[in-house]
Specification:
Pfam families: MTTB (PF06253). The chain is about 40% helix and about 10% strand. The protein is α/β, with parallel strands linked by helices and about 500 residues long.
Length: about 500
């Protein structure tokens, strides 16, 4: 009898290893993809964008854009298609420790934070309070230990910082110090980009080091829907291009409010707004690393309020991922923006289906997806670790059923059914235990009796313990102490020294 064949060494993905490739879920038919894409091209060539700053208008007109009588910039289809063809299709985002980086593009699914929440849920008091710089550091430090979260765009605003420049510098510093994974930040105004890049250069050891290892991307809302450019954001984009900071450019219209109520119409407008940003970035520098954050938000049409956890949000963002994947462009969508105020059943089901659909559709980056509560108005460390647990299972589902050498072994089946009658002790079972299967860290799989005997503790209780354990570990030490001291001597850093411990 032949021995069971061993799997190939590279046939399985270890938990926490390379990201799975999505794209099997397609909420849009090929005809719908074509129609929405055609409409986006028509919007750009016929309606265009308003409020282009003078330097942007001059640049765009010199490179083939046109101007309507009312001043709107339009982009002929041939121009847009040429720019898409030459655009960067794979964006490398190294970590501060380079090997913790990610490659964005091609449907490789990555989970991340984001959202600029203004409150945190304090697990001790069970009350919401204004978020601080220390909260930002603490949240991103937890991300550093979460194997199913690949990058961290600042999840909260440090509301204890009032000066815009000081806020931008300290936001970037807190992220830099908290994790060696890729990070993301944003800027109030163009002049604030250069000091942050100077700080990143210093952290890496010298001038232009950040350009060679751009571990931080800038999240820039270049457009104010519907179809109006944001002057300050366009200036930030230009500075980021000049200084070599990768871009994640955002269109975040709210269906029924700032985009059409019909989801197909909202998708067409949002795709046009995203492509307008891509055109401008590539006019600034052809092939510059740029990720399209196409975030179709949803309104509760009874009140006009945003609803991040709705079924409509789930399918619209999955469709956005499908549209960008079909065009071969690096994508970011939003998911996990539960409307629940605590990590309860509503939070679980809203996050579960919104993130799952986005991942299955092949979103390269899923922003706002972990740790957020209250329609992205608040964040929670405990929700963050719960969501990390959930995302491990979601990423496993994206991998799907894998066929590899030895996966189906007739000899093994015969050996078991004519022998001990179970597979528990076979070499294949032992080899695949941690390769084919993912296990929750916080999710409870005890039987009811054992759960009762162990104290009837919920996932929230286990999350509190997890956060306590993570915060008791030594802080990340990728930023050398002497380098940090030099940065503190040159920059208005407000994160306390005790953040080291």
């Amino acid at each position: 009898m032949r021995r069971p064949r061993k799997p190939r060494a590279n046939s399985q993905m270890l938990h926490g290893g390379p990201p799975p490739v999505g794209g099997r879920f397609k909420p849009l038919t090929e005809e719908m993809v074509a129609h929405i894409t055609e409409t986006a091209f028509d919007i750009l060539s016929r309606i265009g964008v308003a409020s282009a700053p003078a330097d942007i208008r001059e640049m765009a007109l010199a490179q083939g854009a046109q101007e309507r009588a009312d001043g709107r910039l339009t982009f002929p289809r041939a121009l847009v298609e040429d720019i898409i063809a030459g655009a960067c299709k794979r964006v490398e985002l190294p970590g501060f420790l380079r090997d913790r980086g990610i490659e964005v593009g091609g449907g490789r699914v990555h989970i991340g934070t984001g959202g600029a929440a203004v409150q945190v849920l304090d697990s001790q008091t069970q009350k919401f309070r204004d978020s601080t710089l220390r909260d930002l550091y603490d949240l991103m430090r937890i991300v550093d230990s979460c194997e199913s979260i690949h990058y961290s765009l600042r999840p909260v605003v440090a509301r204890d910082m009032e000066d815009p420049l000081v806020l931008d510098i300290n936001t970037a510093f807190a992220a830099l110090k908290a994790t060696s994974k890729p990070i993301g930040t944003s800027f109030f105004e163009p002049a604030n980009v250069a000091p942050v890049v100077e700080m990143f250069d210093a952290a890496l050891g010298g001038e232009d080091r950040f350009r060679a290892q751009p571990f931080c991307f800038a999240s820039v809302c270049h457009v104010v829907p519907p179809l109006t450019l944001a002057e300050e954001a366009c200036g930030v984009m230009r500075e980021c291009v000049r200084l070599g900071m990768p871009l994640q450019i955002c269109s975040a219209a709210q269906a029924g409010a700032t985009s059409p109520a019909a989801l197909a119409g909202a998708l067409a407008q949002g795709l046009a707004e995203s492509l307008a940003g891509l055109v401008l970035v590539n006019m600034m520098q052809p092939g510059f690393p740029c990720i399209l954050a196409f975030l179709p938000f949803i309104s509760d049409l009874r009140t006009g309020a945003m609803t991040g956890g709705s079924g409509e949000a789930a399918v619209a963002n999955a469709a956005a991922a499908q549209l960008l994947l079909a065009m071969g462009l690096p994508s970011t969508v939003s998911a996990g923006m539960t409307d629940a105020k605590t990590a309860d059943a509503q939070s679980g089901y809203e996050k579960g289906y919104t993130i799952s659909l986005a991942a299955q559709a092949g979103a390269d980056m899923i922003n706002l997806s972990v740790g957020m509560l209250g329609s992205i108005m608040a964040a929670s460390k405990e929700a963050l670790v719960i969501d990390n647990d959930m995302c491990g299972a979601i990423l496993r589902s994206v991998r799907g059923i894998e066929m590899f050498e030895g996966a189906i072994d007739l000899d093994l089946i015969e050996q078991v059914v004519t022998g001990e009658g179970h597979y528990l002790g076979t070499a294949q079972t032992m080899a695949l235990m941690t390769r084919e299967y993912v296990y929750p860290s916080l999710g409870d799989r005890q039987n009811i009796y054992n759960w009762v005997q162990s104290g009837e503790r919920t996932i929230w209780h286990r999350a509190i313990d997890c956060v306590t354990e993570l915060e008791a570990r030594p802080a990340p030490d990728h930023l050398p102490a002497d380098v940090e001291a030099a940065i503190r001597a040159r920059m208005p850093i407000h994160l306390p020294e005790f953040a080291k411990a």
